[in-house]
Amino acid sequence: MTEREPIEEENRRLAQRRRKIARDGKDLTGAKLAGRLERTWRRPPGIVGWLATVDHKEIGRRYIVTALLFLALGGVLALLMRLQLARPDNNMIGAERYNQLFTMHGSTMMFLFAVPVMEGVAVYIIPLMLGTRSTAFPRLNAFSYFMYLFGGLLLWVAFVLNIAPDVGWFAYTPLSGPQFSPGKRADVWAQMITFTEVSALAAAVVLVCTILKCRAPGMTLSRMPLFAWAMLVVAVMIIFSMPAVALASSMLISDRLIGTNFFNAAEHGDALLWQHMFWFFGHPEVYIIFLPATGFVSVMVETFCRRPVFAHAVVVLALISTGILAFGLWVHHMFATGLPRVGYSFYTAASMSVSIPTGLQIFCWLATMWDGRPRFPVPMLYVVGFIVTFVIGGLTGVIVAAVPLDLQLHDTFFVVAHFHYVLIGGAVFPLLGILTYWYPKITGRMMSEALGKVGFWLTFVGFHLTFFPMHWSGLLGMPRRVYTYPAGLGLELPNLISTIGAFVLAAGVVLFVVNGLVSLYRGAIAGPNPWGAASFEWATSSPPPVYNFEHIPVAESVTPLWDTVDDLPVVTGLRVDDKEMLLTTVVAAAPDLREPIPEPSLWPLISACAVGVVFVSSIFSPWALAVGIVPCGIALTAWFWPKELKRHPEPVID
Amino acid sequence: MLQPRFTEDVSGLPTCKFGPSSLTWWGIIGYMVIEGAAFALAFAAYFFLMGHEQGWPPEGRLAPDVLAGTLFTILILLSEWPNTMIKKAAHAGDVPAIRRLMPVMVAIGAVLLIIRGFEFNSLNCRWTDNAYGSIVWALLLLHTAHILTDWLDTVVLWALVRTPLAYEPRRQVDVDENSLYWRYVWLLWIPIYLMIYWVPRL
Fold first, then answer.
1. Which of A100, A180, A412, B174 is such that its CA lies 20 to 30 A from the CA of A356?
2. CATH number at residue B174
């Protein structure tokens, strides 16, 4: 009992100090409030501050820029492959290098571009869209970016050092096993997977917690923007699917390094175990890339048609059911491995059924356009390009979902055409659209409309010119992943057209990048809400201040900025002397808690370095794991350990 | 920019609560689901590989000896008793009780890790022997990683509650959520125990 009394005295003293803390409100608003918040929220200047930042906008920008650089690198590899295939019996690139090129291209595009870019956009926009000051767990967010960056560097440094993987982006065993892939190429691939999975899983937890707990008051689940719904479904899908590939790649490394027999048929392992585990991740992965893009489309359709998306609830249910169905179709990638009859029927039916919720979403967008007053600036052109292209890709998807056709078309260019239609048409077009759309929010300036239109048409025409002929060459029997083809089989023309198309497509993408760079300096000043949109990211200045909003806004409808006349309802009372955000309840979004936000810290970077060293050295020795736990443990403990072991009037994370 | 219309003052809200109001509670649930998904797939791999064999363990092999694993199971189940006491102490804000009980959990974790060493020794197979050996070692190793990380976490938390910060309600939420996680660690052990030691005896 002797200890209790000083504690109670301390509590009283802290309570007194707590009453003196400055908070936003009627008396502290406008420029005075902005100045106070700016001082509290800005990070330290210089390189250390830059590396230590936990601002979701900085991290999101880094994610987007890094992912676009990987897109460019992956695109260059694609152009090299198209050059090689431009004419028959070409010897520009040999078989071995070609194997590396398609492996690097697929791995880069799937793991280093498509998933991270969607996460990057979400990390930037979601807190703004939800009307809050930060993501949940901002240091974890920073850690996830560094892990992603290190995974990408591992793969590309290996490529430069000529130890790039050459076993395809899905690294089937036994080809990727110790017997057929000696050396370290397959290990580089497997550890790149581990890096990107750790990163994606961390970002997914950040996004789920942000979307469930950090929404503006009044933004009930039924009023939540469709992009936030899409990212919630995607983050949950990441959480359920990515452990599969992380486990599978660990098993692959252990088969290769310490002689386990998971995939070794001679010791009663099974190569098909790899395929099951890989595709249990790999199929949901496709929707992890596609569903954020449907969120983008909903955002753009709403804004440019000047009405809320038709049947909001149906779109939400379609997103959720797509997310669930995505886990029931992985075996359709394995039709050619020989399955029981009932397996064929089940997975065909499941694969076809996923077109129902996707179709529902498309009809909802069409109905929104029908009923609204559509305008067609550049982002909306990409929406139309998306609908056209994705519908074609969806139809060829229904075709290859049928077993007899799949057995015929498996591993041909028809499949290459199909998945580029759904991935580029379904995800990259909406991405280019949404980057144009959110560019003014991120940079404060508009992208050039004229350059954007030329860029769109080059991209759209170039895309179809590249990939439509692949249906044709695939139907003629041209196998994918073979470095050349003989003359005289009718493959010359479609391949030449594809190669020309690839360069047109690349010109379109280059123009997009040029437009982005030039507009940074020359673009028209955007103002807070240049498109006249309805969601909260447009309620703050462009680019947003480091603290996002002076006061936390209140959502009174699905389209809050359209449903208010000239003022914005806000809540007040968050402290301004330290970083604080508001947490709300999961369903009703009623104000629940005030939550301190961590200060910038170098420890996420140091932790990522420690984990990175362990991952890379475990390619060479299993002891790296045992030894490496020490630096990782120290770094993670330092990350969480408070700098000052004394109590504050209100909690801080320093 | 739109002018603010002031509605509600949130300065009176608390800065922490136990359970689903807490942001870290959701983070921990997220990581539990991630680990659960990994374990579920490892279980699926176990049964997938089992389906390829005539016998389990494969013919000519002995099933693992049950002594160490059973001792481990009894101790980890008993550990829920002090674990629940810590959880209650955290909810009551009873710092002396938290400080008394945390070292008990640290000690239990250390003993469990020692017994785990003997478990590896009683599997009667090596990971290199065949697919059966590989998956059995993988399951045990995965759970060891699970228990080791939670043990380290508990050690750090123990050090933290020995400081004045133990009186911060947020640290008591940490203690509560650490106990929640420990429940998950022992719950997950039950199917693994059955799969390693008893499925081969069916």
1. A412
2. 1.20.120.80
